[in-house]
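Our working data are protein records whose layout never changes between entries. An example says more than a description, so a record of this kind follows.
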Amino acid sequence: SSSSSSSSSSSSSSSSSSSSSTDEDEARMSKLKHILTAETSINLHLDFLYQNSKSDLAILKNIKNAIEPRNSVCHSATIFSNAIMHAGTTRDTFLSENLDWLRRATNWAKFSVIAGQGVIHKGHLKEGLTLLGPYLPASGQAAAPAAAAAPAGTSSSPYSEGGALYALGIIHANHGEEITEYLSKALAQAVDDEIVQHGACLGLGVAAMATGNDLVYEELKTVMFTDGAVAGEAAGLAMGLVMLGTASSKALDEMVAYAHETQHEKIIRGLAMGIALVMYGREEGADTVIEQLLIDKDPLLRYGAMYTIGLAYCGTGNNGAIRKLLHVAVSDVNDDVRRAAVANLGFLLSRQPARCPKMVALLCESYNPYVRHGATIALGVSCAASASKEAIELLEPLTSDPLIMFVRAL
């Protein structure tokens, strides 16, 4: 009897120890999974940005009060400024305090307001559907049962629905495994509405960014082949996002071929930007594509060549690439191409911000407003978060540009 009791006790102890060991192993594996899927780093980054946000709402209030009430360009620029200033911080105080002002947003401005929410809440993966539930297409709201009613002035429309799908992709940018299927279904269900398709394509492209996912790429290509200008533009851009940096010859051949085939400028522009994204970071490996686009008769593809240079050599400060951009900035017959050439100096010098103000100083005084416009973009991109005094000194006079509104807006 004593022997049996001892044996039973030993067996119980062994079972308890084994169970404890299994629980510890599962906890370790769970922790490892969270680290490898970047969930831990995303949450830490989100918390860091929230705790250390130093954005000054007074700047936004002054901008809002300074612009003309009916000026839609500056209204949109203020919305973008708010989104960028609070990117990833989850701080949407400015929007909640200015709902009456936001009611002025119509059509694509409304799209931008909702999409800006995605920028502000980027990385807030667990709450993405809940936050955007009031704006998502009706078929998708079941996925967000905790969503509240849409705030005043944000009534449901194709623009708010498309903006919400784009925002959802931005929130899950480059970590979209969980949301890709949802966005694919939303894209499939929006066959009769190009504006919703536009937002779904962009959201899908950002969520599946750099994955090289052939299934997503084919879905986007199908939308592009419908030859709708609004949806096709977003599809072309999204195809580039999915194939970001892959230099996929299949994607490049298909995109260049369709850019020559379609009659829609919007689609050509989207494809031109998509091609640039496919060649991101490839440096000399992109030179063949760049030369092919540079000699094209279509100014939109030459425009794409500028962005291909900027993204292929992004952050390198490559002198040969800079010379190409400066040459086009003063020689091309198309103003949009010249603007793109100057703007992409900012991407090339994004890791050497001190060089940019000196390089674009004379361009800021150009007689051509498109060149001045490009110079403001270059300074913004290159000197972002640098508090560069030289950049501010160049930008301040342009905020009161006497003739051109879009220069002041940037």
The chain has 24 helices and no strands.
